[in-house]
Design the sequence.
């Protein structure tokens, strides 16, 4: 039985390597494969605004939660894999190299929803726990399997051992900026105690804006190289489109509208929330947002995980039809593997894009993106592009020693530009 389980999961791993799509490479991605699973979230130390990054051998805790849309118990298990810097599963190390304890553990903490129209069971797990902990830095993927040994969801997170010093700054004054629509990153990496003889082979860097994968900068050549470290200054490859503030709304009570909501209705079966109609943004207007993050809560802000209601959220974007791609809704909460669930349809009668998504009560930030015929995702032209935009930038520094078997994450820095 154990041998059959091992073989089936080995095959699953190989399929993942073959079918991994471009938008998942070089980015942490939380993905749902089972339509009964909703509201998948991974948060370190309750910091829901930041990517799930833990410090090795620290007191950091990763909380993982999701809902299954029934009150029936389902036996979910999880498997942890160490990944390389490109998110392919590490092949040259053993499980015992990165894991203390056991793999393939059941998820034992669950709670049925209380007094909700849509029935669901909320499942949670923490890392580390009494069954397993991690002892190596790097990229990790935790895959959740159902009782039929089929994958239901996956969580990607990181563990950093801060051996290299990472410095990062951002400016809106760039060499190429003629219309004040860009931001430029300056980065420094100090080797610290690690021995680097060939930085091209031993060091890999990834720079991200708001933890997005569509504009990730990987292994940009440094401008300055010394025996102590690397520097990227006035580097044109680290100039980003500034974008615009994310849109947002909050559903706290199903009996009346709250922030960003025009109205809430009941159709006899479900609650329906209608955010105010969105329009293309021609100018910059400061509005503090969460850069795609979301937070589950209700008006009382208690027992949020299992008394919050699910509502159908009706998105509307009033805009001329865009001919060179499809408009999709994007945020950290758009975790379904099937992007069709977030694609908007255009109505010629009212001149608006429409989409309906079932979401749990809480705060949501989002933006509109453009999906072209090649499957490439970019920010929609409806969002605008202004240098004043508040963005969060993440820098990840990986290291592989000479003769090393895997990439370790030895430096991490997050910067908020205002």
Sequence:
């Amino acid at each position: 039985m154990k041998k059959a389980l091992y073989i089936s999961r080995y095959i699953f791993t190989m399929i993942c390597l073959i079918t991994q799509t471009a938008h998942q490479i070089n980015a942490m991605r939380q993905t749902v494969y089972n339509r009964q699973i909703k509201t998948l979230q991974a948060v370190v130390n309750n910091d829901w605004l930041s990517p799930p990054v833990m410090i090795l051998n620290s007191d950091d805790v990763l909380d993982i939660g999701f809902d299954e849309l029934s009150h029936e118990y389902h036996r979910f298990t999880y498997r942890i894999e160490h990944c390389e810097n490109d998110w392919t599963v590490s092949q040259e190390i053993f499980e015992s190299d990165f894991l203390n304890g056991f793999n393939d553990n059941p998820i034992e903490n669950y709670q049925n929803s209380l007094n909700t129209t849509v029935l669901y069971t909320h499942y949670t797990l923490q890392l580390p726990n009494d069954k397993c902990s991690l002892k190596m830095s790097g990229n990790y993927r935790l895959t959740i399997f159902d009782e039929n040994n089929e994958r239901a969801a996956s969580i990607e997170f990181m563990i950093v051992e801060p051996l290299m010093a990472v410095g990062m700054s951002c400016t809106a004054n760039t060499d190429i900026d003629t219309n004040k629509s860009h931001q430029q990153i300056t980065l420094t990496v100090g080797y610290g105690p690690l021995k680097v003889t060939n930085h091209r082979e031993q060091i890999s860097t990834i720079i991200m804006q708001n933890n997005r994968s569509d504009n990730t900068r990987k292994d940009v050549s440094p401008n300055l190289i010394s025996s102590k470290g690397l520097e990227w200054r006035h580097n044109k490859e680290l100039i980003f489109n500034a974008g615009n503030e994310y849109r947002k709304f909050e559903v706290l009570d199903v009996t009346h509208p709250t922030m960003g909501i025009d109205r809430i209705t009941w159709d006899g079966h479900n609650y329906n929330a209608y955010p105010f109609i969105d329009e293309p943004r021609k100018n910059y207007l400061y509005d503090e947002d969460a850069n795609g993050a979301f937070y589950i809560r209700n008006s009382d802000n208690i027992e949020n995980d299992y008394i919050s209601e699910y509502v159908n959220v009706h998105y509307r974007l009033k805009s001329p039809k865009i001919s060179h791609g499809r408009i999709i809704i994007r945020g950290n909460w758009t975790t379904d593997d099937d992007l069709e669930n977030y694609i908007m349809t255009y109505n010629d009668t009212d001149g608006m894009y429409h989409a309906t998504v079932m979401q749990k009560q809480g705060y949501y930030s989002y933006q509109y993106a453009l999906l072209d015929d090649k499957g490439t995702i970019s920010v929609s032209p409806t969002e605008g592009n202004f240098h004043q935009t508040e963005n969060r930038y993440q820098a990840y520094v990986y290291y592989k020693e000479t003769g090393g078997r895997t990439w370790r994450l030895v430096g991490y820095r997050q910067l908020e530009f205002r």
Summary: The chain has four helices and 31 strands. The longest helix spans residues 2-19. Helices lie at 2-19, 95-98, 199-202, 304-307. The two ends are 56 Å apart (CA to CA).
